[in-house]
Amino acid sequence: MASDSIRNIALVGHQGNGKTSLAEAMLFRAGVVTRPGRVENGNTVLDTQPEEHDRTQSLTLGLASFEWADCRINLLDAPGYADFIGDAMTALHVADVAVFVVDGVSGLQVNDELLWQAAAERSIPRIVFINKMDKERASFDQTLAGLRDHFGAGVEPLDLPVGEASEFTGVADLLSEHVILYDTGSATTSDELPADIADREHEQHEHLVEDVVEIEDDLLARYLDGDAISVPELEHALRRGFAGGSLWPVLCGSATEAIAIDRLLDFLCHIAPAPSEVPGVEVRDGSRARSVVCDPSGDPLAFVFKTQTDEYVGQVALMKVLSGTLHADDVLVDQRSGTKERLHNLLRVLGSKHTPIDTAVAGDIVGAIKLTDVTTGDTLAPIGSSLMVAPVEHKRPVYGIAVAADSAGDEDKLSTALAELVGDDPTLEVVRDSETHQTVLRGAGDVHVQVALTRLQRRYGITVRTEPVKIAYRETLLAPVETEGRHKKQSGGHGQFGVATVRFEPLPRDGGYEFVDATRGGVIPKSLIPAVGKGVAESMERGGSHGFPLVDLRATVLDGKHHSVDSDDFSFRMAGALALRAAIDKVGTLILEPVDHVEVTVPSSLQGDVMADLGRRRGQIEGTEPAGDGEVTVLASVPTSEVVDYPVALRSMTHGRGRLALSFERYQERPDPR
């Protein structure tokens, strides 16, 4: 199939708006399935993971490729829960059109707004599908008003619902002024409008025509001269305005009853732009940037936007062909690793079902298996090419939990399994903390991490223990002090002897460790003096009086004694360590706690609540910055111990509207807990 017949569509929106149900209805109308599955029954095409069945919600990005009329539609079903918004961002990065599925009962919700903003930043054409028009309390008018309040006058309805709630039976097409009814389950089209909406439909039709003709100057001139504008001419102008981002069409229907789904599919095929009609992809060509356009005759170039582990075939790499034509058994180079990858199997993907194909043209989305070393975000290019696509940038995960294998035999397996989980989901992060000796799994929130742990046990058979993340406290000396470290051991034959007098001084924060030799007269042989410094450093790592590593310290060796036979490197390492222990006992230490730089973006109305909460967490407010769209970003420094649970608390406090970024900033003295 040619590139201009492909449509890459992302279904996005808030959790529970019915995206997966809409995908199921599309597959049903297209004849791919004989009856639509239901999310609550766990039998949909795109919710393939047991964790999705258990939670009755989408948790990962799903792909369904199918044909409608003369088009191939590659449908990307993105999860709507906030913890998994990373996959929604990936869908927006790959798709050429975004369909925002909005709940006709609840109206516009927080993740609808956040994802709309993300789509706008990428200039992706957007359609709104108001779903659940068959439900009680569904309101097309109220939902449309909310869309216009938030997104502006470019929101343009193309439909009017026929009937309400259980009486919802179809839609009136505002362009053609036809009505499409589904009383019998399949669509019947008529130009006879129901009497109760006829007047309103004519009025809305005129408003729509006035807005659409403004897109093209010649149509506007003819319209003002009184000429009748044909439906094909209006559709042409609508297509131009939609692709250009000046107009956002609104359709409505019911996914569970498959009402007006075929109309949405027709719109996607006839109005939405093909990959060849959107701007090229920005890539790096060595040290310079350039654009790659969708051209089936160009050099082959593919972007791996997602890898998934299938229990039967192993890893499946989902990729978008950006240029050229891929053939089975082609050899491309992974630009990240330099590995040559043979495309043994190209696949057409429909949820968990894979159909082998021979070729894939530019603009298409396909799968591949049996690749050697490919991960999410990789670029596959011809041998000798330096082209590389920038991977999708995800925010650093902010919620963590420490994990350990329940049995010693699973420790090595756990490390490998965690690496594979992160390979499939780069919004996860695994960190081995050298100070606390914990392996920390981080995600966007508590649900994200819990799902990953469930998947870990199911997929790899590994049971893990979890515990809270330990805080990497440190210590430093309270005051300068001079001490002597004396190590003497004699047990017959060659003994051990080393004496070192050392002055210890605390350094400013982040001063590190300094070792200075100030001895005179060879009291300690030059070859053995570094051993004193090494002994101090080893003792610092073992910790101070509270058991935390010592930092920000200068050790100056002033004097010492040695024995020509019994002194050696080990003896003076012990002398240095003993000198530090004596210093700790003499002057004591203070505890240093890590502090994070915190950025919280919320609606302005919640600014006061956030600032007060950060204050209760011992935070120091550094200022605020406008974030656009009525939002503000609060900047603060907050002790790390106070923000361990903050991602969950912020979501509760802001009803999901708060966005959080954390980064380590500094160490500071911890107040006496007494």
Automatic annotation (TrEMBL):
Protein name: Elongation factor G
Domain Tr-type G: 4-276
GO molecular function, one term: translation elongation factor activity
Coiled coil: none
Record Gene3D superfamilies: 3.30.230.10, 3.30.70.240, Elongation Factor G (Translational Gtpase), domain 3, P-loop containing nucleotide triphosphate hydrolases, Translation factors
Gene: fusA
Keywords of this entry: Elongation factor, GTP-binding, Nucleotide-binding, Protein biosynthesis
InterPro entries for the chain: EF-G-like_DII, EFG_II, EFG_III/V, EFG_IV, EFG_V, EFG_V-like, P-loop_NTPase, Ribosomal_Su5_D2-typ_SF
PANTHER family: ELONGATION FACTOR G-LIKE PROTEIN, TRANSLATION ELONGATION FACTOR G-RELATED
PROSITE patterns: G_TR_2
Transmembrane segments: none
